[in-house]
Each structure stands twice: as structure tokens, then as C-alpha cells.
Amino acid sequence: MSTISREVNKNGGRDVYRAIAAQERSLAHAKRPKHCLLAREPALRQQVLVLLKEEWSPEQIVGHLRLHHGTDPRMQISHETIYRSIYTTRWKVVPRELCKRLRTGRPIRKNKRHTVKGQWRSQIIDARPIEERPQEAEHRSDFGHLEGDLMIGSNNSQVATLVDRKSRFLTVVKLASRHTAVVVPALAKTYARMDSRLHATLTWDRGMELAAHKQFTAATGVDVFFATPRSPWQRSTNENTNKLLRQYLPRGTNLSTFSQDDLDAIATKLNNRPRKCLGFRTPAESVALTR
Fold first, then answer.
1. What angle do CA 148, 151, 154 make, to 5 degrees?
2. Is 206 in a helix, a strand, or coil?
3. Collapsing DSSP states into helix, strand and coil, what is residue 261?
4. Domain match, 178 and 281 both
5. Checking phi first, is residue 12 left (phi over 0); if not, alpha (psi -120 to 50) or beta?
6. What tens digit of pLDDT does each residue of 216-251 get?
7. Per the confidence metrics, is the pTM higher than 0.90?
8. By C-alpha distance, which of 89, 113, 111, 112 is closest to 99?
9. How far, in Å, CA of 3 to CA of 1, rounded?
10. 25: Cβ contacts below 8 Å, ≥ 6 apart
């Protein structure tokens, strides 16, 4: 059906269509701001609020209304309209605390347009997949194959963690932000003061903080490989070490209050803690044994 046919049918069909009347309706329809459906229909709003308090999902509410009020057009609504009413504060037709009754409990809505589903995370240019990583890294047969990630704290704070797959030797890096222009130079500076035996490869997730991975490789000579999206088990050494690190840097901590010396001291504690996977040697001992 053409655009013209839809316009004519929407305004009464060929027999009654009048251009002036159609234009007036269009202008009235375009007026903003508009009251949302729940603000215009008190009975519908009350029913939706009751069911939200019962922790029903918007989709369940819509299905229930269609089943029990299918003949009443004023009791019909879409789940998308309910979500918009919850997360839009302009009209305040749904109390903000009801967002906690949703299964996600999010205070703000996640933007589907910003998802990385089905993509290589955030379009990192020339990202080398983990499948191309040397077998020595996979088998943990050599030192120097590190896994890295960001650890996030409160107030938009973060640190980077680097863990050797063979020895579990940890390095923690202070960061002023998670932007690649800050992260890459900080990692390169850290590598310059690290044991040269730890300069083989680096495996990271798909975060944009390493978008400038080519600059990092040029500065350090270390090849960077990227794990598959939503596959944390591919960097299990780093994930497990971060859990240990949370003893000293709990969730919700403002990580910007820690100096690099503070972070080095914490890493030293973990590097001198025996590990079962190392035969109860410490990561520091494991590195020192091969000198």
C-alpha cells in the first residue's frame, strides 16, 4: 500500500477525505507534549500499578488485560508503553520505586541501540581473535602470556589488572579513566617496568579501552588478542584473580583514592600468597624459580 493510500484511508477514505481536515488532524496529532496513555486512562493506570506491585512483568500485564478486558479498548496497552511510563519521569504516572519490582531492577532503561550483541565488541578495528593466540598461551607452558581487564569501582573509577597465565603473577595499574587514550599509555608504561619474561602476549575482552591496541603493540612489541564476546571463561585466570583482589578492593570502593604504590603493595600481597594450582608455591616463587 502506498503512502498516499494510507493517508487517504486514515482520514475516512476516498468518499469523505478532505485535505484541509486531514491537515488539521495532522497538526493536532503532532502537538507536544502529549499526555501518555496511563495519564489519560485512570482505570487502566490503577490496574497496571496494582499488577506492577505484584511484580508482574509488563508483558504479563498486557496478556492479562487482553484476556480479561479484550472488549474494552480503554483497557488495552502495549508492554512498550508500560516500560516507557516506568522509565519516563516527565508525567510521573508510575512511581519510580516500581522499577525495582521489575526483574532487572534497573533504575534506568538499557538502550538496545547501544548493545554489542552479534558484533565484535564495539567495532575494535583489526581485533585478533583468541583463536589466533599461540598454543603456549593456551597450554600455560611459557611465561609472558597475560590476561587483562578493567576492575570498576565507584565514582567512575577503575584500575587495570594483568595476570600471567602460567605463574598467576599479578600487576595492578592505576588509571585516570577508561578511555583508550589513557589506558594504552598506562599499560605501555607498566610493561616497561615489568619483567621482560612477561612480554609475550596480552589477552583482553572486547572493551573499547583497548581500541588503540595497535599503538600498544608498537610501543611494547606485545601482540594483543581479544576474547569472544560474553565469554569470561576464556580469561578465567584474570577473572579468578580479580575475585581475590576484591578482598582488598571491595565492590563500591572508589579506586581513584589508591595510589600506584598502594596498588603495588596489594599486588605484592597476592603474589606472595600460596596457590593450590601452583603446588602451594606463590606466584612470586613461580617466577623466581626460572631465573
1. 165
2. coil
3. helix
4. yes
5. left
6. 999 999 999 999 888 889 999 999 999 999 999 999
7. no
8. 89
9. 7
10. 11
274 in the same domain as 146: yes
By 3-state DSSP, what share of the chain in percent is helix, strand and coil, each rounded to 5?
50, 10, 40
Using CA atoms of 230, 241, 194, 158 in order, give the dihedral in degrees to the nearest 10: 70
pLDDT digits (tens, 9 = 90+) for 33-50: 667 888 888 999 999 988
67 with 173, same domain?
Answer: no
Number of domains the chain contains: 2
Q: Can you give the residue range of the structural domain that contains 104?
A: 32-109
In what order do the strands lie in the sheet containing 145-152?
170-175, 158-164, 145-152, 201-204, 223-226
Number of Cβ within 10 Å of residue 74's Cβ equals 12
Residues 126 and 253 in one domain: yes
CA distances from 23 to 11, 33, 77 (A): 10, 19, 27
Q: Collapsing DSSP states into helix, strand and coil, what is residue 199?
A: coil
Query: Within 13 A of 247's CA, how many CA atoms are on the CB side?
Result: 9
Q: How do 158-164 and 170-175 pair as beta strands? A: antiparallel
- CATH code, domain with 237: 3.30.420.10
CB atoms under 10 Å from CB of 116, counted, come to 14
3 state DSSP class of 176:
coil
Query: Which residue's entry shows cell 605501555?
Result: 188
